[in-house]
## 1
Amino acid sequence: MTLLSFTPSSRLPVPTFSTVRRQPFVSTTHHPQSCGLLGSKPIPLFGLRTHCPAPYDVSIRSKFLSFGLSASVEDLIRDAGATAAVIGGAYVLVFIFDNLTERKLLNQGLSRKLVHILSGVLFMLCWPIFSTSTEARYFAALVPLVNCLRLLVNGLSLASDDRLNKSVTREGNPEELLRGPLYYVLVLIFCALAFWRDSPIGIILLAIMCGGDGVADIFGRRFGAVKIPYNPQKSWAGSIAMFVFGFLFSTGMLYYYSALGYFQLDWTSTMQKVALVSLVATAVESLPTTKVVDDNISVPLASMAVALLSFSN
Ligand SMILES: C/C(=C\COP(=O)(O)O)CCC[C@H](C)CCC[C@H](C)CCCC(C)C
Ligand SMILES: Nc1ccn([C@@H]2O[C@H](COP(=O)(O)OP(=O)(O)O)[C@@H](O)[C@H]2O)c(=O)n1
């Protein structure tokens, strides 16, 4: 099982998630596709069909398969529409925070952090609007990819997007776009492709990077008088906020996906594992390593390592 092929299939003996309520982690669907880890069909989201195709769909799908299309036209249209909508949402988010900064309703630092928190969390909240086809994750990954190109073009000064600079950089310096923000969207691309809706690991990883690390900055700047002995740049308040909000964002996102039918989790065990991942991520984020490796890389890497160990059987 590789991360990218982490798609349950009724034919293969698939591992049983220890966090899943005591039943074999086997999909009962006709198609090896990410539609609920246990064949439990996700409930429709906003009226959209997010469940696995019913048997009658097999005949429709087999017609497309005979033409070599692995996804139905309906799925392709839905995914293209979802991609366009979420890309539009990203532009609106940057526009809103640029406006708030312009009007001095938000300082640039807080604006940047709120964009840091909201971008990834809202992106994950949008994943269920994509179809259940195996191609859906690639459509979803287009959203951070488009923003990656936007960051590169502006960071290399091939174009100038003032709104982006003001809402995403500390001092409005375009080169800044090529560090934290670029690593951030690269992690979003990786999680969408490698984990998608199939595994709690990517969701936890993003919740900690976006929610935990984002809130750490806000609390740390505001309440961070007592510094961490081994890193005067960081504070106990910031790190405690990182742990607490990393945990809360992670469990909140897992509950969201569980409520939609993607996961059936043993919550006692899951909460323990999420707390461990959040603790390790907090410890890594507190280290004086930002000059060597950005915490948008170190924190997700550490979170992924611990989450893979914790959630594998
Ligand atoms: C400010 C950001 C990262 C900086 O991190 P750090 O250096 O402060 O630790 C976030 C950059 C966000 C990016 C420009 C836009 C990403 C949009 C996202 C892929 C899709 C959001 C869609 C949703 C519906 C708003
Ligand atoms: N654990 C933490 C994290 C951040 N912070 C505060 O937030 C500021 C920015 O943190 P950071 O360097 O991690 O910011 P980003 O690299 O995430 O943008 C730090 O200079 C601290 O003032 C903190 O006090 N404690």
## 2
Amino acid sequence: MAALRWDGKLFVLDQRLLPWEERWVEVSSAEQAVELIRGLAVRGAPVIGLVAAYALALEAHKNPDLSYLEAQGQALAQARPTAVNLPHAVSLLLQVARETPEPERAKALAAAAEALHRADAEACLRMAQLGAAFLSGPSLSVLTHCNAGALATGGVGTALGVVRALHASGRLHRLYACEARPVLQGARLTAWEAVQDGLPVTLLADGAAGSLLASGAVHAVVVGADRIAADGSVANKVGTYPLAVLAQRHRVPFLVVAPTTTFDLACPSGAAIPIESRPAAEVRECAGRAVTAEGVGVFNPAFDVTPPELVTAIVCERGVIAPVTGENLQRVLA
Ligand SMILES: CSC[C@H]1O[C@H](OP(=O)(O)O)[C@H](O)[C@@H]1O
């Protein structure tokens, strides 16, 4: 299962059509990649960085001129504001472009994008093992939110990578997936990944998470991230922050799983993380049909911020950060 394919040509699985249809779309330009990222055809912090990197490699094949590539890179970096993986990937590729003579630029950018992809896949495997080892117990029920799986990364997933590792070692009792209104990444994507892999999965409305946690049925909450600030604040899909409050209330570990490409040490705190505001239609409509009256205002932030004191641990490929403090972040990331 993968969100993208690269063989010198770039293809992405159009996630807007899942779980109803698996349709692969060829990406042939940075402009098209921006549209696909902005429209959530491809989504998830790590994978949008990878798509941007491959799109730049494709552009370099067409026109290796540095100022042209800089302009394409800026457009890609601005496709969505919250996931720092996106500008991280673009700036790395543009650095390679600046350091490479024009005739070799296309090949160098393709190699750099492929290296980023391999690194993300390896990080997912490492985090899966670290996260599964951090959680104690022989048979665990894990609650997750949105989709932090293979569809969001270049590998097995971040949060879902931990769930897959638990399953592989016989320690997963059940995966509880919050639907993740309004775009339903949990209902449409996480549940689909779980069924594809034979994971025992139960879908719930976001509003049901409180009573599920109160019932004692959940042993851990495990989520991904889109940006982690220097103080350990975590931006993730809207609805994550209330889950962290509920997890603390019910004394359930709250684990954030994210590769180092999701950390932004230049961002001092959660208040400085740019939160994407998405179209009102995502809330006003369901399956293309209005679910509210005309004239109703909409508040539709794509993400929220969880303060570090509500996070039990952050798992990255370099290790486990716990307790979550700025000092511990620096120590693990150094
Ligand atoms: C591997 S973490 C992916 C992260 O991205 C999701 O947001 P979106 O679907 O809007 O790209 C969500 O926040 C996930 O946790």
